[in-house]
Amino acid sequence: MKTTEHCSDRLLAVGRELFAKYGYDGTSVRTITSKAKANLGAITYHFGSKHVLYSAVLSMLIKPLGQRINFALLLERPPLEKIESVVRAFFDHIRANPDMPAIVVREMASGRPVPGVVASTMGQALQQLSAAIAAGQTDGTIRPGDPLLLALSCVAQPIYLNLARRAIATAAGLDQDDPGVFHRVVEHAVQTVRASLRS
Q: How much is the average pLDDT of 77-105?
């Protein structure tokens, strides 16, 4: 049993690394199994197909982010503070998973339908964030506006600043791998979101 578990874990780890580097279409079953030191049929045996393995990799990346967002929004705090916590959760999650932006960019550029795990996790997060914004509009701390569009604007900050991090490092000299720069970027994003929402 241990050998089976270790093999599936290796396939996930190698699949994640290769999907980040080469995308779904640029990664072959043969390359994954070879690098994972598994036989050619291992992906079919453990996951059923390359597509299911890819979905499992996306799930490893996206579901914990959804849990962080859910936790941030369930805390008993004023709506603006909850939203700030969501922005920080995005940054913290992506910092802990540096391969995530590459996989997300490749997935967005692929033209394929959005995978179910991504659609459901992010859909739920946007609903929760919209509800927090609507609560802030009700208590007068958040300005009027479409809660869903405001929620999208909130998550756009951490998403863009992370997806474009290599270009930003080259063009602007802001290397987010530097803890001091990372802190500056996060605080800027939080303050930008707060200023855009404040009533």
A: 92
